[in-house]
UniProtKB/TrEMBL annotation:
Protein origin, superkingdom: Bacteria
Similarity remark: Belongs to the LysR transcriptional regulatory family.
Pfam families in alphabetical order: HTH_1 (PF00126), LysR_substrate (PF03466)
InterPro entries xref list: LysR_HTH_N, LysR_subst-bd, WH-like_DNA-bd_sf, WH_DNA-bd_sf
Organism of origin: Pseudidiomarina sediminum
A GO term for molecular function: DNA-binding transcription factor activity
UniProt entry keywords in alphabetical sequence: DNA-binding, Transcription, Transcription regulation
Domain HTH lysR-type intervals: 1-58
Protein name in the entry: LysR family transcriptional regulator
């Protein structure tokens, strides 16, 4: 039996009528009748008999139906999958981002992108740096964006931008509002500890170790925006990425460049064995532009 035979047989079996089967299949009644006749000719036996204006399945049809039903459901599954693949390939960008990128960068990039591509759908979820690999492996997202994530053999990395690391301080701490602070000056004041917060924290800790500096710290957090909130309450200074700093403004807080400077790269990651769809690739320049606009 051909696929068209299966569709017609299934529709007639369920409706008991050529007319209703034609309506279900959105074809003409003569086309249904012709397809049924062709199927029965190929099989060598009748599938239906007419009684009192209805088509009743033969014993052979009853025997065939469970297998036909299974094939029909599989066919519907294939059609549904094809539709999803077509939709996703043409119009869905599935992202996983680390929290710092959610303040301004990704919203700005999506807004700019959709002005040019209004039909594209976005799915965005927030992950921490240690969740990037499992999120991609489990196909929960197609593209993950974050600060200098660890290199994994199964992932391809795409450079987006290098983001400056800056110092946040309460205005009362440095009333003269310096535009630049040295690491030696910073460690003379309470420094909120975010060293276990991921790649940015690791870079900061390495810089302090290389300079042989030991910060004073009574507050330890693992999220940059919490560190910024603590600074706003006068509980110390913190060293965080520029994106998090700009995403958590406060009248009582000022920002300064570091001396010597420190940068952390942003990477876009995807599974090496799952190349990015064209629509996702086309989003990357907007992402780079959003970062550049914020840090310059």
């Amino acid at each position: 039996m051909r696929l068209r035979h299966i569709e017609v047989f299934h529709a007639i079996y369920l409706t008991g009528s050529l007319t209703q089967a034609a309506q279900v299949l959105h074809i003409s009644q003569p086309a249904v009748s012709k397809t049924l006749a062709h199927a029965e000719q190929q099989l060598g036996f009748a599938l239906f008999k007419r009684e009192r204006g209805k088509l009743l399945p033969t014993a052979e049809a009853h025997t065939l139906f469970p297998e036909i039903e299974l094939l029909y459901r599989q066919l519907q599954g294939v059609q549904s999958l094809a539709q999803n693949l077509r939709r996703d390939a043409q119009g869905t960008i599935d992202l996983a981002i680390t929290p710092a990128l959610g303040f301004n960068v990704v919203p700005d990039a999506i807004a700019a992108f959709q002005r040019q591509h209004p039909g594209v759908r976005f799915r965005v979820q927030t992950v921490h740096h240690d969740e990037i690999l499992p999120t991609l492996q489990q196909r929960k997202a197609d593209l993950a964006i974050g600060f200098a994530p660890p290199h994994y053999p199964a992932l391809t990395a795409i450079a987006i931008a290098d983001v400056p690391i800056r110092a946040l301080y309460a205005v009362d701490t440095f009333p003269q509002r310096p535009q630049q602070l040295s690491w030696h000056t910073l460690v003379q004041h309470p420094l909120i500890d975010i060293f276990d917060s991921g790649p940015v924290g690791q870079l900061i800790w390495q810089q302090l170790e290389q300079a042989q500096l030991t910060p004073q710290s009574t507050q330890q957090v693992d999220t940059y925006f919490i560190a910024a909130r603590l600074v706003a309450r006068g509980l110390g200074c913190c060293v965080i990425d520029t994106l998090s700093a700009l995403g958590n403004p406060a009248a009582s807080v000022a920002m300064a460049d570091l001396d010597p400077p420190l940068h952390c790269p942003i990477r876009a990651l995807h599974l090496t064995d799952k190349p990015l769809a064209k629509v996702t690739q086309s989003f990357l320049p907007y992402l780079r532009g959003a970062v550049t606009d914020l840090i310059t």
